[in-house]
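Continuing the series of single-chain predictions for the mutant panel. This is the parent chain; the variants come on the following pages.
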Amino acid sequence: MNDLSDAALRALAERAGSVLSGRQRRVAVAESCTGGWLAKCLTDIPGSSQWFERGYVTYSDAAKEQALGVAASVIETFGAVSQPTAEQMAAGALHHSGAALALAVTGIAGPDGGTAAKPVGLVWFARAQREAPPLALEQRFSGDREAVRRAAVATALRLIIAAP
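Parent structure:
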């Protein structure tokens, strides 16, 4: 089975749900480049209402600021695709929800929008938790728009599974 196939993503989402359920935790997600795909994968799993709190699709800079409280100065200084923005997205999702865990994804899926410093395929992830230190992760994926988004969803699911 292809690690990024629909079946593989479903298996990762099922495992994430099992981990969250077993730990009696709820998750919130804040998505930009994945456009709600992470929330869809999680809520495709029967019983997800027991562990999925909410999802934010904050595609624009204004949405990141308004819905999640990302500081405009952070986006102006570092850009929407950056560690500080991802961290503030995760922190905002955690703050505005009753979840114990929040996962944020922001990236450049392409086919355009990339630069030499921030190429297509660059994705930042951040995980925030009420009882653990935050985590940020930079990844660079290859392939077309769907391949980058699919890889980002898989990585986000793995970060939920691995949360302490």
